[in-house]
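Protein fold
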Amino acid sequence: MFKSLIIFLSILVFFNATASPSLKNTVLPVAHHQLKTDSTRLVPREFNKASLKAYKNNPDFNYHIQKKDITLWDRFWEWIWDVWNNFWLWVNSILEKLFGHRGGHSAFLVMKYLILGIGVCLIVYVVFKLLGIDLLHLFRKEPENKTVSYSESIENINEINFDEAIENALSIKNYRLAVRLLYLRCLKQLSDKHLINWRLEKTNTAYLNELTDNELRRQFTQLTRQFEYVWYGNFPVNGQSFQNINAIFQEFKRLLP
C-alpha cells in the first residue's frame, strides 16, 4: 500500500514538471471600460416656507399635549381612584402571603369580582327602590282571586263608581287595576268637560288628538304612557309607585278648566 502511494506521487510530480510552459505564461486579456460622466442636472428642492407656517399654525398638527388645569373635582376622583387601586393591591398582597403567588392571585380575582357583583346588585336594588318597583313582583305569580265590583269587558265610564272601585282595588293591593281605573276616571273628567268625545271603541291616541290645549295634551300624554306601561306592558306596581302615579293624575285634575 505504501509503495503504491510513493509511485502515484512520483508520477504526479513528473507530469507537473513537464507541463507546457505556454500554458503557464498565458496572460488573460483584460477588458477596459470607459467611465461615463453623469451629466444629469440636479435641481435642489427647498421647503415652502408659507406651507410650513400654515401647518405650524394649524391646531390639527399640534401634537404637543397641553395639560389642563386640574380642578378640585378631578383631584377628588383621582384620590378615589388611588384609594381604590391601593386597596386592591393591599388585598392581593395579603392573599399571596396566605396562599402563595398563584393561589393568592386566583383568590384575589374571585374576591374582586364577587365584591363588584354585589356592588352592582346593590346599585340596581337602590335604583328600583327609588322607582318604587317591587323586584319580587317580577318573579311572583299574580293571585287569581283578585276581583272587582264591575265587569272589565264592559267599561262604560258613566256607569263606574270610581271612588268605590279604586278603593276596592287598593284593598286587595291590585295596583295595576287601580291605575287603569285612574285612567278611566281621567277620561270621564275630560268627557264631562266636553274636552273629548268619549266612545267605547276609541283609542287613547284619538282622545289625545282631540285635546287642543298644549299643556293638557302634554300632561295627558304622560298619563297615557304611565297607564300603557302598567296595563299593557305589565310594568310591576307596588304601593309606593302607585302613589307616585296617582300624584300625576291628581296634578292633571288640577289643570282641568
Summary: The radius of gyration is 47 Å. Residues 72-130 form the longest helix (59 residues). Residues 72-130 form one domain. DSSP finds nine helices and no strands in the chain.
